[in-house]
Structures are given as structure tokens and as C-alpha cells.
Design goal:
- With 305 residues, this protein is mainly α.
- The protein has one domain (30-304).
- The chain has 15 helices and no strands.
- The longest helix is centred in the last third of the chain and has 27 residues, at 253-279.
- The protein is globular.
- The termini are far apart.
- Residues 1-23 have low confidence and may be disordered.
Length: 305
């Protein structure tokens, strides 16, 4: 990504910067394993769950964190497992998909074990209202996977997966806090919306960096659906950072931390996009997920206080 006022189109970007694909049959570097094992998204969601819960003064219970982390891992693992199943080995362009194809059946066994643990934790540790809300969200996730992996996989005009993922992840981070007795859903609205925007920024930028991957995998992404929107996608992190900074001035005390983390994460995403032509898409993707871990700082300060 260039500075906001000097953006280039997606076609110009892809022509000026060689897109070298990694050798996916090689062993991934150590710093890539959280992504390969689908652990990055659960870590982000659990941190933001804790931060959003603090807005309504409802500390996260262990069962809530466990259910959310396991559920996110199950969804990501299922998506990559299906992708690895349907792709020919020669078409695979990422370590994560190669890993899910090579270790298909051990991962399937692990997936079933985590699913049983997830269900047990939900039954034992969630309230009835939280359990019902989680089931509704589960149906939405299942509908997304069915639509985007099977029914509408090749449709150019399907709902952009980046928007769907952002909404589902944001809802997942806030749903248990919102379902607590006496919790104010209104107080969570703006903080949750900011997190959804961050998730969209993350996914939209990755769709630009991995456009060649999606073509090889036969996937439809925002970058491929709206190729001329590259400038918009690259400007979004800076816009979200500015919006979050404005929200900091208007927010109540408990929501200010969320706004500050959102502003910092969005700015970091913009910086990663600026660096992507030099560091490559693989490192950029890892750093884009790390950029969303900003809630770790205030949560650690609160824990040590």
C-alpha cells in the first residue's frame, strides 16, 4: 500500500511487484505455524472478547473464552480442510492449505475431539441465553461455509466473504457479553462495530495480497469481485483509524480503551500494507493478524494493576 493519496490500482500493483509463490511442500518457518494451525484467529477473538466484555463490566468466564476460541478454530479448520480436500496438490499456493491436505485425517480426528470439548464446555459453562445465542451464531457460520465453499463458490456476485467474516467474528466476540443478564447491548454496539471494521480491513487487505492464491484456488474474493476497489481497500485502515480516534473522544470511559486499540490496530494494518511489496504476502498476512492483538496491552496492564 502506498500513502493514502498515492494509491495504485490492483492491476498496476500486481504487474509492478512480482508475486512469487512459496514452495508449499517445504517446512513452514516457525513464525508461520500459528497461521498454519489456525491458532491466530482464536487468539485475536479471545482478546477482543475480553476487551468488549470490559465495556459492560462483565469479566469473561473461562467457559466463554474456551467456547469462543474452540468455535473459531473449528470454523477456520473446517474451511481449510474443505479447501484442501477439493484442490489438486499442484494448485495449492499456501502452507496452511497444504498442511490441511497432507494431514487431512489426523486433523479430522482432532476436529471431532475439539468439537466434543466445545459442546461440553458450552453445556457446562454457558447460561441458557448464551447457549441459545451461540446456536444462532453457529447456524450463521454453517450457512456461510455452505454458501461460500459449495453452493455459491463460483458466483461472482455472492456476498463478499470479507464482509461475512467480519460480521461473524465481531458477533462472536460480543455475543456472550451481550447475552449476560442486565448487560447493555447498546453500550456494546459501537465497540463491536469498530472491531467488525478492523476484521474487514484485515480480510480486505489479505484479499489484495492473495489475489493470485484465490485465482489458483478457484475462490472469489473482494479483490477479484471488485478489482477497481483496490484503492478503497488500502484507504480503509487509515479511515478506520481516524474514525476510532474520533470515537475515543466521544466514548464513555470503558469504551475508550476499545477505541484506542481499534485506532492502533487499524494504523498498524495500514503500515503492514505499505510494507507488503517488500516483505511479501506471507509475512504480511502474519503481521496483519498480529496487528489485531493490541488488546493484549491494556488487558495485561489491568491484570498486573
Amino acid at each position: 500500500m502506498n500513502p493514502v493519496f498515492g494509491l495504485r490500482s490492483a492491476s498496476h500493483y500486481s504487474k509492478s511487484v512480482p508475486r512469487v509463490q512459496p514452495t508449499v511442500t517445504s517446512r513452514p518457518p516457525w513464525w508461520l505455524w500459528p497461521t498454519v494451525l489456525s491458532l491466530d484467529a482464536p487468539a485475536v477473538l479471545v482478546l477482543w472478547q475480553a476487551l468488549l466484555s470490559s465495556v459492560v463490566s462483565t469479566p469473561v468466564r473461562p467457559a466463554e473464552a474456551a467456547v469462543l476460541g474452540c468455535s473459531v478454530w473449528l470454523a477456520y479448520c473446517a474451511d481449510r480442510w474443505i479447501e484442501g480436500w477439493r484442490l489438486a496438490p499442484a494448485a495449492i499456493r499456501t502452507h496452511r492449505h497444504h498442511f490441511h491436505q497432507r494431514w487431512r485425517w489426523p486433523l479430522a480426528a482432532a476436529w471431532v475431539a475439539v468439537l466434543f470439548f466445545d459442546i461440553a464446555a458450552a453445556l457446562a459453562g454457558l447460561s441458557a441465553a448464551q447457549f441459545r445465542a451461540g446456536c444462532v451464531l453457529l447456524l450463521a457460520v454453517a450457512a456461510y461455509l455452505l454458501s461460500h465453499q459449495l453452493v455459491h463458490r463460483g458466483s461472482r456476485w455472492r456476498a463478499p466473504k470479507e464482509v461475512c467474516v467480519a460480521v461473524l467474528l465481531g458477533a462472536g466476540a460480543a455475543i456472550f457479553a451481550a447475552a449476560r443478564p442486565g448487560a447493555s447491548a447498546g453500550a456494546l454496539a459501537v465497540p463491536t462495530a469498530l472491531f467488525m471494521l478492523l476484521c474487514f480491513c484485515n480480510c480486505a487487505l489479505i484479499s489484495l495480497w492473495e489475489d493470485a492464491v484465490d485465482r489458483s484456488h478457484g475462490q472469489t474474493s473482494l479483490a477479484l469481485q471488485l478489482g477497481r476497489a483496490a484503492a478503497f481497500n488500502r484507504a480503509v485502515p487509515w479511515a478506520v483509524s481516524a474514525l476510532s480516534a474520533a470515537a475515543w473522544f466521544l466514548a464513555a470511559d470503558r469504551a475508550r480503551t476499545v477505541a484506542a486499540c481499534s485506532a492502533a490496530s487499524a494504523a498498524l494494518l495500514g503500515v503492514v500494507d505499505l510494507a507488503e511489496p517488500r516483505i511479501g504476502r506471507v509475512r504480511a498476512r502474519v503481521l496483519a493478524d498480529i496487528a489485531l492483538l493490541t488488546p493484549a496491552a491494556p488487558l495485561l496492564v489491568r491484570l498486573l494493576a
